[in-house]
Specification:
Layout lengths: L1 E9 L5 H13 L6 E7 L15 E7 L2 H9 L1 H10 L3 E10 L2
Helix pairs in contact: 1-3
Pfam families: Dabb (PF07876)
Organism: Chitinophaga oryziterrae
Protein name: Dabb family protein
């Protein structure tokens, strides 16, 4: 398995329309055919010292392998998401991992 976790830090002061645009666009990525599992969410209400809740949204994308991830990265839906939403975030942090 190949796991792709993306934490988005949205800009402060975005309008409700901008936030909806981000959410709708991020959720549209779930249609990419190489995904095994896809989820977009906000920080959970859990609150312990080891939990980082500083991000705005977290995307979890799981693929069977690196090749599936590579298809996702070049997919027109993914490229459109970046182009249409990149002005909404100030920072993106990505964690990729492979099953051991």
């Amino acid at each position: 398995m190949f796991v792709h976790v993306v934490n988005f830090y949205l800009k402060a002061g975005l309008s409700a329309a901008d936030i909806k645009k981000f959410e709708d666009s991020a959720n549209s990525l779930g249609a990419i055919e190489t995904l095994v599992l896809y989820n977009v969410g906000k920080p959970a209400s859990t609150d312990r010292p080891v939990i980082d809740r500083s991000y705005s949204y977290c995307e979890l994308a799981i693929f069977n392998d690196l090749e599936g991830h590579d298809v996702y990265q070049k997919h027109p839906l993914h490229l459109a998401f970046i182009e249409n939403c990149k002005h909404l975030w100030e920072k993106v942090v990505i964690f990729d991992s492979e099953t051991i």
